[in-house]
């Protein structure tokens, strides 16, 4: 957006035929705005969550809770804070990058402190932690859960990873945009409009590429009585209770960022930090990962 | 009439070269300048002045890459010239008798890039010969390819691969110096150093100049080996300007790419102009 690569869609959005703009999650759509213009239309998003039985670990989503609060909380919150090993664990840092200066928005020391504390809590985690699964928020996230642990009670708590500053965010996994140099803007916008329609957001056309990674931006598709979202041989929906929990999770998303390869570096860093055969010290590993991430942001 | 016909024929003969230079150098250069002063591309391009230059020069990773490249050149060029000069001087008398000796020096230069990288990996990778030797000697572990020592390894690779080429260039200049001058100096009782400073050096400036130019070009070509050893984002000590350029190109960031290219061109032109002026003065004095 900053490099003027995409077309400003603001004047086209009121003319959309297929997309119900009111049903698109506002905070996620905000990620595609830049200087009063809507340049990118997020199609799907996710956030790392840890699932517990609601009866064992109830949780009220908040925009004020911090990662430190999670570590100071009970075993369930601690597990939710440190057990995720996905590429989205960097959502603890908010913001992750300073796009105006093309550099990371946190220091190497902050990264080192975070890694150290995460590893410490990870290794000292109490055995009293209730049964849990770490997941991405994605279509079909409850399908392959261990039946011994969750089959009898499929009402979940969905605990996200809160940031150091407070609140939690979403990661945009796929999006639609129009090249600023297009010679056929109307045709391009027509296709973009369809990609955010209910038909596409719930169909194989969208789900083929993204259903194993995220949930659609359009609200209301995944609850009982609705069309559901294409998944494997059929359509996937959540129970009314779980959809209510999901809606609460969605309602309290404080910001949205785009998913980038930087998360892979963080994931690799934690893997290396836990590798007992690693010859490098933790400080060297963090330094190497931090420098590589800085390089990637500087070149973007 | 004859003159204009002759001129026209001349223009026609150089036309293919001129067209090629225009298409593949001049026009792209103008486009690079345009990209460096604007945001976006094609019809969506907006002129923004020197904002891109400001952004890039304030970027810590760009300055680190630029610094590493200048550090590599500052260390590599003098070293390769000294090494090549010494070898060329030693070979000066033997060059005519042992032609195979000259060829042997070119073997590392003609070795494929992948072959050189495999050799480096065999020697310096974690399971390589050198770390094994270091472990046997009881010395602390050194990450030769992923740590600060990587700069030294890359420099060594550059010297090993390209010294032979510079030897050949300098040797070509040395063999053109008339033997009678050295004989006359011997008769006058000149020492080896005196012959080197007063006979050899004044007649070698242009050869040295060309050897430096080609060594500079080969230094930039060394990126291929560094890329294969360290990947797209190597250790910070061997993160070169070419990495920044290459990765910016992959991210379609033509503005940053263009700015970095222009800044590098300015530095290289300044160095080239300073040294060329020096050589011209030396040659003019000799003439």
How would you describe this structure to a colleague?
The complex is a heterodimer of chains A (300) and B (287). By secondary structure, chain A is α+β, with helices and mostly antiparallel strands. Chain A is 34% helix and 18% strand. Chain A contains 11 helices and 13 strands. Chain B has helices at residues 2-36, 51-57, 60-91, 99-110, 113-124, 129-136, 150-174, 179-187, 192-200, 205-221, 223-230, 241-250, 254-286; strands at 38-39, 46-47. The longest helix of chain B is centred in the first third of the chain and has 35 residues, at 2-36. Chain B is globular, with a radius of gyration of 24 Å. The model of chain B has no long low-confidence stretch (mean pLDDT 88). The A-B interface holds A 2-5, 7, 101-103, 180-181, 279-280, 284, 288, 291-292, 294-300 and B 39-46, 55, 58-62, 126, 141, 143, 146-147, 233, 235-236, 239, 243-244, 247-248, 251-253, 255-256.
Number of helices of chain A: 11
Q: Main sheet of chain B, how many strands, which sense, barrel?
A: 2 strands, antiparallel
Strand content of the residues of chain B, in percent? Answer: under 5%
Assign the structural class of chain B, choosing from mainly alpha, mainly beta, alpha/beta, alpha+beta, or little secondary structure: mainly alpha
Largest sheet of chain A: 4 strands, mixed
Termini gap of chain B: 38 Å
Helix-strand sequence of chain B: HEEHHHHHHHHHHHH
Report low-confidence residues of chain A grouped into runs of 5 or more. Answer: none
Helix content of chain A: 25-40%
Low-confidence regions of chain B: none
Give the helices and strands of chain A as they follow along the chain: HEEEEHHEEHEHEEHHHEEEHEHH
How many beta-strand segments of chain A? 13
Biggest β-sheet: strands ordered side by side in the sheet of chain A:
10-3-9-13
Radius of gyration of chain B, in Å, reads: 24 Å
Shape call of chain A? globular
Mean pLDDT of chain B: 88
């Amino acid at each position: 957006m900053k490099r003027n690569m995409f077309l400003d869609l603001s004047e086209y959005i009121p003319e959309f035929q297929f997309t119900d703009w009111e049903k698109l999650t506002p905070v996620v759509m905000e990620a595609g705005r830049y200087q009063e213009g809507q340049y990118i239309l997020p199609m799907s998003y996710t956030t790392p969550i840890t699932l517990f039985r609601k009866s064992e670990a109830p949780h009220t989503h908040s925009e004020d809770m911090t990662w430190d609060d999670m570590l100071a909380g009970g075993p369930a919150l601690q597990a939710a804070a440190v057990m995720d090993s996905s590429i989205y664990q960097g959502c603890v840092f908010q913001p992750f990058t300073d796009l105006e200066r093309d550099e990371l928005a946190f220091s190497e020391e902050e990264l080192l402190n975070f890694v150290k504390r995460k590893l410490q809590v990870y290794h000292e985690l109490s055995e009293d932690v209730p049964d849990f699964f770490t997941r991405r928020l994605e279509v079909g996230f409850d399908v392959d859960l261990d039946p011994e642990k969750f089959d009898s009670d499929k009402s979940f708590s969905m605990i996200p990873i809160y940031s150091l500053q407070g609140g939690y965010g979403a990661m945009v996994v796929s999006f639609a945009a129009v090249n600023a140099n297009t010679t056929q803007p109307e045709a391009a916008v027509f296709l973009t409009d369809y990609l955010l329609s209910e038909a596409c957001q719930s169909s194989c056309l969208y789900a083929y590429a993204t259903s194993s990674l995220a949930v659609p931006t359009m609200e209301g598709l995944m609850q009982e009585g609705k069309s559901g979202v294409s998944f494997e041989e059929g359509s996937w929906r959540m129970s009314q209770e779980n959809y209510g929990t999901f809606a609460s999770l969605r309602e309290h998303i404080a910001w949205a960022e785009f998913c980038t390869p930087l998360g892979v570096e963080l994931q690799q860093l934690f893997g290396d930090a836990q590798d007992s055969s690693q010859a490098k010290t933790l400080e060297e590993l963090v330094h190497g990962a931090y420098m590589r991430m800085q390089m990637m942001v500087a070149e973007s | 009439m004859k003159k204009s016909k002759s001129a026209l024929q001349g223009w026609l003969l150089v036309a293919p070269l001129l067209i090629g230079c225009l298409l593949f150098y001049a026009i792209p250069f103008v486009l690079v300048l345009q990209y460096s002063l604007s945001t976006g591309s094609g019809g969506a391009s907006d002129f923004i002045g020197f904002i891109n230059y400001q952004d890039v020069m304030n970027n810590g990773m760009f300055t680190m890459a630029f610094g590493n490249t200048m550090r590599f050149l500052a260390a590599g060029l003098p070293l390769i010239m000294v090494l090549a000069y010494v070898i060329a001087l030693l070979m000066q008398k033997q060059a005519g008798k042992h032609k195979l000796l000259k060829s042997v020096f070119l073997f590392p230069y003609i070795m494929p890039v992948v072959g050189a990288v495999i050799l480096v990996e065999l020697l310096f990778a974690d399971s390589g010969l050198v770390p094994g030797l270091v472990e046997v000697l009881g010395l602390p572990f050194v990450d030769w390819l992923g740590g600060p020592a990587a700069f030294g390894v890359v420099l060594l690779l550059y010297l090993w691969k390209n010294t032979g080429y510079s030897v050949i260039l300098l040797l070509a200049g040395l063999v053109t110096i008339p033997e009678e001058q050295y004989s006359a100096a011997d008769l006058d009782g000149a020492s080896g150093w005196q012959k080197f400073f007063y006979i050899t050096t004044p007649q070698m400036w242009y050869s040295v100049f060309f050897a430096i130019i080609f060594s500079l070009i080969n230094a930039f070509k060394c990126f291929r080996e560094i890329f294969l050893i360290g990947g797209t984002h190597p250790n910070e000590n061997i993160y070169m300007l070419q990495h920044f350029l290459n990765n910016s190109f992959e991210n379609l960031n033509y503005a940053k790419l263009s700015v970095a290219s222009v800044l590098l061109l300015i530095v290289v032109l300044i160095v080239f102009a300073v040294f060329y002026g020096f050589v011209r003065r030396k040659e003019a004095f000799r003439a």
